[in-house]
Inverse folding.
């Protein structure tokens, strides 16, 4: 693309709000970097509490992504390929967590899986398992909030994929499961990867459902976003450092997504 | 009989009703315009579409009997689609070996068989490439190897040459002919190109609006088309009428003199090169002479193909020189002459 003049062709009524929009999105992040106490950074990061929160965040977000892949990819296939009735209702239900305030999700999880909850009381009676306020609860809360991102992304990739390849596989003796494993999944791999990264990033930033359902216990349920919120009230500098770490992780994710997958999605 | 199929199904506005039989080693071409139901029919044969009614039997095994339908992956068939459709994430060799692997052949054995087939279709040494690195012709050859490698009982070719450019098409068509000659099972070739049908098929079935309108050897179909569609494909003017001795009274009212005695309902077919055009009424012995108006003209190599309308709708080929000399722009009035001996007549 060649541009002869700066901003050529963009009408002023669009250009001004667009520029304001960029400023609105970028300035707070710049402000965060400007206020970062870079000299104290190393010391803050060495704090055991920070390391613990970061480790817990990474582990729980990764587990939530793995769980989302195991449940979400088959769910996306059902939404994209099966001709069962009630599919649109199913899709609407699956996407509810996308628009639901995460706190409400946390309350709902608590009511079902809590010690007094419908499933939770049975788990407690039968196996002596309690879920709330454990790391498992963190993973469940994050999965609840983040899985729809994966499902939507993979379903979109499945719909965009050329189903004639599946016909070809069938004429070559591949049953539906073999076709899924050896043809469909490799074809939509870029979409699955992009969905997984989105899902992971969303899980990493999860706050509302986590604090409601899993609580805020350092070492077991206190993830980075929770630590940031708490630190902001006691020690703003620590909050800034934690925020910068999360920002760095997010940017790294974005770059990974762009270079490794998004660029290749079109070619696949 | 390798394939016996009697299929009826409705798809949208199309009501398909086709009965065909294909012997072992025989190539049957399914010729027809877009939307005639050709692809629907082969999809039924492949098991990718369940028919509403009918029966498909291949090599004595029932694939469809109206109530139960054997799924596509358990039918011993090979299929080539219009756009090769090689799996983009697999190498060319793995594409060719795919059918063997899904049917339980061990990896090394499947690889060897794939390499053998790649050599047979002239892709020796290209097995490690990705499909995207192949030309259109090479991809279609690989697709053919992939379809044939499992030694299927039935080979389905759905417009296998349509996506290729004219030159590649010629060479791939010639190779396909060679491979089909060596194939022991039955073949169903879907095409809308009469040249494919003539060059590759032992028998042609013409499908229009879901029905078989004509069946026969390629030569029969080309010489004696029974519908306007086929006549236009092979470049003939088809005139339905009634035989009255040595002339045919056309359904439109005009009479066409013919060389032999005919009676009853007949077709008169006239080839474009048999029609002579004159600016003024010619003298002489031409018995069929009609006043016509040029309604269309398209260049056709060194000649111009003129569509004529008048007492008798005709198509005439004239040289580009005479086209210019006679001033044959659309709208021009001309005389068209056809010798009685140049009119082919056959029963309707």
């Amino acid at each position: 693309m060649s541009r002869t003049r700066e901003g050529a062709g963009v009408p002023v009524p669009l250009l001004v709000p667009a520029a304001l929009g960029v400023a609105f999105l970028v300035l707070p992040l710049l402000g965060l970097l400007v206020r970062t106490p870079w000299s104290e950074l190393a010391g803050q990061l060495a704090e055991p509490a920070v390391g613990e929160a970061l480790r817990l965040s990474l582990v729980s977000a990764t587990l939530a992504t793995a769980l989302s892949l195991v449940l979400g990819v088959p769910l996306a296939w059902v939404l994209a390929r099966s001709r069962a009735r009630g599919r649109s209702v199913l899709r609407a239900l699956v996407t509810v967590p996308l628009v639901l305030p995460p706190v409400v999700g946390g309350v709902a999880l608590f009511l079902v899986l809590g010690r007094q909850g419908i499933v939770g009381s049975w788990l407690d009676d039968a196996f002596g398992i309690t879920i709330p306020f454990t790391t498992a609860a963190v993973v469940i809360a994050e999965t609840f909030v983040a899985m729809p991102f994966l499902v939507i992304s993979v379903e979109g990739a499945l719909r965009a994929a050329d189903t004639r390849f599946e016909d070809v596989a069938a004429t070559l003796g591949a049953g539906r499961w073999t076709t899924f494993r050896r043809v469909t999944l490799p074809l939509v791999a870029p979409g699955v990867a992009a969905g997984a990264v989105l899902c992971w990033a969303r899980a990493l930033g999860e706050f509302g459902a986590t604090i409601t359902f899993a609580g805020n216990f350092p070492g077991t349920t206190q993830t980075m976003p929770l630590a940031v919120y708490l630190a902001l009230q006691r020690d703003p500098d620590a909050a800034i450092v934690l925020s910068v770490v999360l920002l760095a992780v997010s940017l790294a994710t974005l770059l990974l997504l762009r270079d490794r997958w998004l660029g290749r999605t079109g070619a696949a | 009989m390798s394939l016996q199929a009697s299929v009826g199904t409705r798809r949208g506005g199309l009501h398909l009703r086709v009965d065909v039989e294909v012997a072992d080693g025989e190539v049957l071409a399914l010729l027809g315009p877009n939307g005639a139901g050709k692809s629907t029919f082969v999809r039924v044969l492949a098991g990718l579409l369940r028919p509403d009614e009918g029966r498909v039997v291949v090599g004595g095994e029932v694939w469809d009997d109206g109530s139960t339908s054997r799924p596509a992956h358990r039918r011993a068939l090979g299929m080539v689609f219009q756009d090769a459709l090689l799996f983009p994430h697999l190498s060319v060799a793995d594409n060719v070996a795919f059918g063997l692997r899904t049917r339980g052949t061990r990896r090394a054995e499947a690889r060897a068989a794939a390499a053998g087939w790649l050599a047979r279709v002239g892709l020796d040494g290209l097995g490690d490439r990705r499909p995207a690195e192949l030309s259109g012709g090479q991809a279609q050859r690989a697709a053919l190897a992939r379809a044939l490698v499992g030694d299927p009982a039935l080979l389905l070719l759905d417009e296998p040459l349509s996506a290729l450019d004219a030159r590649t098409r010629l060479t791939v068509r010639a190779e396909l002919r060679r491979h089909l000659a060596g194939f022991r099972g039955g073949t169903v070739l879907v095409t809308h190109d009469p040249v494919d049908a003539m060059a590759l098929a032992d028998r042609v079935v013409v499908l229009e609006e879901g029905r078989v309108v004509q069946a026969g050897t390629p030569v029969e179909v080309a010489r004696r088309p029974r519908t306007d569609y086929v006549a236009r494909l092979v470049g003939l003017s088809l005139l339905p009428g009634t035989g009255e001795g040595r002339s045919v009274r056309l359904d439109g009212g005009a009479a066409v003199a013919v060389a032999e005695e005919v009676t009853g309902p007949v077709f008169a077919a006239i080839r474009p090169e048999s029609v002579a055009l004159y600016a003024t009424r010619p003298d002489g012995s031409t018995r069929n002479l009609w006043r016509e108006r040029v309604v269309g003209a398209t260049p056709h190599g060194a000649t111009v193909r003129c569509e004529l309308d008048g007492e008798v709708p005709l198509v005439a080929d004239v040289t580009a020189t005479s086209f210019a000399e006679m001033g044959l722009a659309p709208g021009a009035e001309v005389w068209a002459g056809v010798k009685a001996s140049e009119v082919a007549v056959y029963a309707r």
